[in-house]
Specification:
single chain; mainly alpha; two-stranded antiparallel ribbon
């Protein structure tokens, strides 16, 4: 009886350890954040003229994107383990808390990153694989260390943050050149569409990240991160910068319609969403408090899914 009980306890203990290890790996990849990033990649792939709903390819793109994005996030956590340990919001992360070694995290990042880029190359094309690799390297090895050096890190980070849109588009076209043309059933389309989607998500990141940095300013300062455009922290200059980028989103948001990607209904939806972000940034400039910054942050969270799904639903 004792032997049987011991075996059961050992099996339960092993099962628990395995469950906790899987949970740690998911936490390393920042699964929710990665899902949001890959969502934009898949939607932009489906926005390519002539692309149909092939669920096998959609799932392959989703898995590959999760592997690449998860790899970049894992490297980020391994590199920032000491600063993560200083912040209440991140102290419980696997490497920062000591539950996992940095070497194990780096090993996991290499395997997932390689697998993701390989999948993009094999199942889609070399161009999308190259962009995936560039995105991973920029985020992990340029943006991550720059966060402690200069607020230009937000500008640098905006490139890998927006590249999933272009990666999804190029996965469907195999063409990076924005001035190229696509021939779909005898009809000509410009390849500029992927770059327009990239530009929209690129600009979106500035009010989004500055709002986050405003809300978490105390924690970020403790860790030595320099993510606000002003050295003095949350200031009217920061709010003004957020307004400028939000205003730039308005004309850029019209490009999908002008380029023939989507119709008038989505043009209206995107315009309303862009003006709403401008409005929230203006409120931040007037009110100058964390509550207003949090409104910008949450508005930006719901902005992307609404805009991208509207464009897809109204695809020409």
């Amino acid at each position: 009886m004792k032997s049987l009980t011991g075996e059961l306890n050992t099996e339960n203990h092993t099962s628990l350890r395995l469950t906790l290890k899987v949970k740690d790996y998911l936490q390393l990849t920042k699964f929710t954040l990665s899902f949001t990033v890959v969502f934009s990649c898949v939607i932009c792939y489906l926005l390519v003229p002539g692309i149909v709903y092939d669920w096998t390819r959609i799932i392959l793109l989703f898995v590959a994107g999760m592997l690449v994005t998860g790899s970049a996030n894992t490297i980020n956590q391994a590199a920032e383990r000491e600063t993560d340990a200083l912040m209440k919001r991140t102290a419980a992360r696997p490497v920062a808390s000591g539950r996992m070694s940095a070497n194990e995290a780096y090993g996991f990042a290499f395997i997932t990153g390689f697998a993701g880029v390989w999948m993009m190359y094999v199942f889609f094309n070399a161009e999308s694989a190259l962009l995936s690799l560039i995105s991973l390297l920029l985020y992990a090895f340029v943006y991550t260390p720059l966060k402690k050096v200069n607020s230009l890190a937000v500008l640098v980070g905006a490139f890998p943050g927006a590249l999933p849109c272009l990666i999804g588009w190029v996965a469907g076209t195999g063409i990076i050149n924005p001035f190229a043309t696509l021939d779909v059933l005898g009809q000509q389309y410009t390849n500029m569409g992927g770059w327009a989607l990239f530009a929209l998500q690129f600009l979106w990141q500035f009010p989004h990240f500055w709002a986050i940095a405003w809300v978490a300013h105390t924690d970020y300062s403790k860790a030595g991160f320099k993510l606000l455009p002003s050295d003095k922290g949350p200031t009217r200059f920061t709010a003004l910068q957020a307004i400028i980028y939000a205003v730039l989103m308005v004309p850029v948001g019209m490009l999908p319609y002008e380029l023939g990607i989507s119709g008038q209904v989505s043009l209206f939806v995107v315009l309303v969403c862009n003006l709403f972000i401008v409005f929230q940034c203006v409120r931040l400039y007037i009110e100058m408090d964390v509550k207003a910054a949090r409104r910008v942050m949450f508005s930006s969270y719901i902005y992307l899914p609404i805009v991208l799904l509207a464009l897809l639903a109204d695809k020409m």
